[in-house]
């Protein structure tokens, strides 16, 4: 499933916020991403129209299976890339920023190899 980087960023933000605080609203996403509420509202409604999430009558946002699958994939990429960069000696701030960029463009093949490599250290 291929979607735009911006949509991946929204889905990743939603799952991260859900993991931190449970219920998520558009205002939470707006604050986390630093985007205006109208910008977030448009993006969230587009994601809803495309079947990635749903918004209930109280404005709470939840991921539907396709959105959750993408969000978990991007979050996993982010966490593993950040871990690799920190282990290489990159500062946490830079590792965070770089992981955020690279997670959207790295190929499946390269990421899978990096993941296997980092996991081999955990088994030692």
Automatic annotation (TrEMBL):
GO terms for molecular function: DNA binding; DNA-binding transcription factor activity; protein dimerization activity; transition metal ion binding. It holds the Pfam family Fe_dep_repr_C. PROSITE patterns: HTH_DTXR. Keywords: DNA-binding, Transcription, Transcription regulation. Residues 1-64 form the HTH dtxR-type domain. Belongs to the DtxR/MntR family. In the presence of manganese, represses expression of mntH and mntS. Up-regulates expression of mntP. This is Transcriptional regulator MntR. It comes from Candidatus Gallitreponema excrementavium.
């Amino acid at each position: 499933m291929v979607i735009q980087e911006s949509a991946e960023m929204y889905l990743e933000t939603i799952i991260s916020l859900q993991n931190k605080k449970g219920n998520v609203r558009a205002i939470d996403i707006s604050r986390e991403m630093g985007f205006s509420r109208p910008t977030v509202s448009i993006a969230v409604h587009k994601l809803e129209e495309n079947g990635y999430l749903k918004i209930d009558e109280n404005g709470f946002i939840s991921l539907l299976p396709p959105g959750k699958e993408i969000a978990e994939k991007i979050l996993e990429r982010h966490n593993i890339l950040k871990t690799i960069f920190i282990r290489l000696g990159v500062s946490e701030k830079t590792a965070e920023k770089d992981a955020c960029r690279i997670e959207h463009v790295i190929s499946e093949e390269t990421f899978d190899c990096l993941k296997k490599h980092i996991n081999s250290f955990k088994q030692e």
